[in-house]
Every structure is written in C-alpha cells, then in structure tokens.
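can u do me a favor
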C-alpha cells in the first residue's frame, strides 16, 4: 500500500475476500484467518496501486494463494493424524490382547495357590486391603 492508503481501503474488500475464501475453504474459522492473513500481507507488501479494482485483484490473488496453502497444510495434518490414529489402533489391539493374556496368566497363577495364600493375594490386591 502506498502511504496514502488507509485501513478503510483494505476493509472495503472484506466481503469480497470472505466470499472468495469461503468458496475455496468451506470452513468459517479458516475463512477469517485467510482474510486476516491477506490483510497482513497487504500491510507488509504495500502494493503500489491506488486503483480499487487493481487492489481487489491483488488481494484476491493473495487470498487465493493463502487459502490454498492453508488447505494443503490442513490436508497434510489430517493425513498425519489419520496415520497416527491407524497406527495406534493397530498396536492398541495388540497391546490390549497382551494385557488380557497377562491378566489371564496372573489369575491362573493365583488360582493354583493353596487356599490360604490365594485368600491373602485376593484380599491384598483385589480388595485393596493393607498388607498387615
């Protein structure tokens, strides 16, 4: 923006940028982020145009590029999250089976004890009574 351009020159294009971002992203939270990022880019780049139509076109290009980058980043994050969830669910079933097998082994071992020892173990670990 040139020095003579104020914030009103940018905010006059807010509706256009919101519609553009909404068409590209379909996510209300991301739409507002794209509009804000576009305004920041305009303030930092200071486009050398006073013509509102050319400024609108420039802002549209920046918003489109910003929306595409956001979409790619969000898609990559979603893919990573799906991969992590799939890995956890695959290993989670295996870990649950191992815990079940360990519990079964413990129950069989306690069951094999003579009745007095079994009662001590049951009272201590299953009834949560103190050791004495």
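np, heres the sequence
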């Amino acid at each position: 923006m040139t020095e003579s351009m104020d914030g009103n020159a940018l905010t006059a294009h807010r509706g256009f940028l919101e519609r553009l971002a909404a068409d590209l992203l379909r996510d209300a939270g991301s739409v507002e982020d794209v509009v804000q990022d576009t305004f920041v880019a305009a303030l930092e780049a200071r486009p050398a145009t006073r013509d509102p139509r050319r400024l609108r076109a420039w802002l549209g290009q920046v918003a489109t590029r910003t929306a595409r980058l956001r979409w790619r980043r969000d898609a990559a994050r979603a893919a990573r999250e799906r991969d992590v969830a799939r890995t956890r669910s695959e290993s989670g079933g295996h870990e649950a089976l191992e815990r079940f097998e360990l519990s079964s082994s413990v129950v069989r071992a306690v069951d094999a004890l003579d009745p007095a020892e079994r009662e001590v173990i049951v009272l201590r670990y299953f009834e949560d009574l103190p050791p004495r």
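DSSP finds five helices and no strands in the chain. hope that helps!!
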